[in-house]
Design brief:
By secondary structure, the chain is an alpha+beta fold. The chain has three domains: 11-92, no CATH class; 103-148; 156-209. It contains four helices and eleven strands, in the order βββββββαααβββαβ. The chain has helices spanning 105-116, 120-129, 136-146, 191-199, and strands at residues 14-21, 25-32, 37-38, 45-46, 49-62, 65-77, 87-89, 156-165, 169-176, 181-186, 206-209. α1 crosses α3 (136-146) and α2 (120-129) packs across α3 (136-146). The N and C termini lie far apart (65 Å).
Length: 218
């Protein structure tokens, strides 16, 4: 057996400076281990530091506590004369931490899985119990960013309403009834919106729909 260093619990490429706990969450101050970073515009690596600023990033929980990473992020000067970006913020691999992301990639992957399985409010409640608090709107955005896998065009579909905000705003949900999967979320439940979507799906042979008055007709 060997001793475990705190940095081994962090995403690759970072080292821990100090860790504090307030009882409900653990705040870990971190910094990148690399001495330089490539410019996102010209790709030339620079090691000339211009300035630093704090960046707050959520990560996987530890021992039942929420984890917040306080990253001392650096700004570098571009060494390319013709580069349009004179100063740039250091970049990391997208599989670790994306630009402007508020969560590490490994936490974001779990958030996306929660959104696709329980979905919406049940997933948000479950995430809070796992010490990974996210809102149901965040879960929906995670699904939209990742998109969906390619699939065979549906032949038998179901159309029904779904609520963006109950009693205020509704959309149209379209399911592939053969695969029992949701394949489209339309922004409203107007007839024209559903017809426009169906126009691009000429292979559809059967449409099942809710008989409610407000439902988008097939």
């Amino acid at each position: 057996m060997r001793s475990l260093h705190a940095s081994e619990l962090l995403p690759p490429g970072f080292s821990a400076v100090v860790a504090l706990s307030d009882g409900n969450s653990t705040i870990v101050t971190i910094r990148a281990t690399s001495a330089n970073s490539p410019c996102p515009s010209c790709g030339v690596v620079s090691g000339r530091i211009h300035s630093r600023y704090p960046r707050r990033v959520a990560d996987l929980p530890i021992a039942g506590r929420r984890v917040v990473l306080m990253l001392h992020s650096r700004r570098f000067r571009s060494d390319t004369v013709r580069c349009a970006r004179r100063i740039f913020t250091e970049r990391f691999d997208d599989s670790i931490l994306k630009p402007w992301a508020r969560r590490t990639a490994r936490l974001d992957q779990i958030v996306a899985c929660l959104a696709l399985t329980p979905g919406g409010r049940p997933a948000a409640r479950f995430a809070r119990r796992l010490s990974m608090p996210v809102s149901n709107d965040t879960l929906l955005r995670a699904v939209c960013r990742r998109g969906g896998p390619s699939f065979a065009p549906p032949v038998i579909i179901g159309i029904d309403d779904w609520a963006w905000r109950r009693n205020h705003r509704y959309g149209t949900l379209i399911c592939d009834l053969k695969r029992r999967k949701t394949i489209a979320l339309l922004p409203d439940r107007e007839r024209a919106t559903a017809e426009a979507w169906l126009t691009n799906q000429p292979q559809i042979a059967v449409v099942a729909r809710d008989r409610g008055r407000q439902s988008a007709p097939a």
